[in-house]
Specification:
This protein is of the alpha/beta class. The protein has one domain: 3-Layer(aba) Sandwich (Rossmann fold), CATH 3.40.50. Helices cover about 35% and strands about 25% of the residues. A 6-stranded mixed sheet has the order 5-6-7-3-8-9. The longest helix has 18 residues. It is globular.
């Protein structure tokens, strides 16, 4: 079954000592396999909060989020962890690679969460690293790679479990212009090949303009550009 994502009237409120802070005020949209969207907006508008909710790292205060026809927040914690591991891939601004592990081992980290997965995923890890241009660097450590190479490893790691949903939070934000463009090219190429739902949060207008579909968050509300 191809992936689907549906947000219906999603709200997020954070409780503080002074008063509740409403970050998201009724966000609704749908996406299907093979679709991609850039999410833009000023700092503090709730872009990363939205990504965390979709990624099941935090729960909405109201409204529903459905991924592949399921409401993940209705799952028991252990089942939710497995669902997140298998259905969702994450790429962050910082690569978050483990310095003591090789490139190949870093890509396999998500498969280590559940017994029996790493062996069956080793061939895919090598294939992904070939596709991101690092097949010759399998045994290198992150410190031996450039910033762009480390981010390419992070992209391969995000795809190791064949997720239907790929979430990227400022994936080019810490890279120089040429390297950022190369990483963006890679994201689009792999998204097309894997037919993921791709959601990219970015401050970069240059990157956002490459998407056919763009959403803007402002003052807690979401509008299609």
């Amino acid at each position: 079954m191809e992936s689907e994502l549906r947000l219906s009237d999603v709200h997020k409120r954070f409780e503080t000592d002074d008063r509740p802070v409403e970050v998201l005020l009724g966000v609704s949209f749908e996406m299907h396999a093979g679709q991609a969207v850039a999410v833009t907006g000023p700092s503090g508008s709730g872009k990363s909060t939205l990504l965390h909710l979709i990624g099941t790292l935090d729960a909405p205060s109201a409204g529903t989020i459905e991924i592949d026809g399921r409401e993940p927040y209705a799952l028991p914690e252990a089942e939710l962890a497995r669902f997140r591991n298998q259905a969702i891939g994450f790429v962050f601004q910082e690569h978050h690679l483990l310095p003591q592990y090789s490139v190949l081992e870093n890509v396999l980290v998500p498969a280590l969460a559940f017994p029996g997965e790493s062996g069956s995923r080793a061939e895919r890890a090598r294939e992904l690293l070939d596709r991101v241009g690092l097949g010759h660097r399998l045994e290198h450590r992150p410190a031996q790679l450039s910033g762009g190479e480390r981010q390419r490893v992070a992209v391969a790691r995000a795809l190791i479990m064949e997720p239907g949903l790929l979430l990227c939070d400022e994936p080019t934000g810490s890279l120089d212009g040429a390297t950022a463009g190369a990483v963006a090219d890679l994201l689009f190429e792999l998204h097309e090949q894997e037919r993921t739902i791709l959601i990219v949060v970015t401050h970069s207008q240059e990157l956002a303009q490459r998407f056919d579909r763009r959403l803007e968050l402002r003052e807690g509300r979401c509008r299609e550009l």
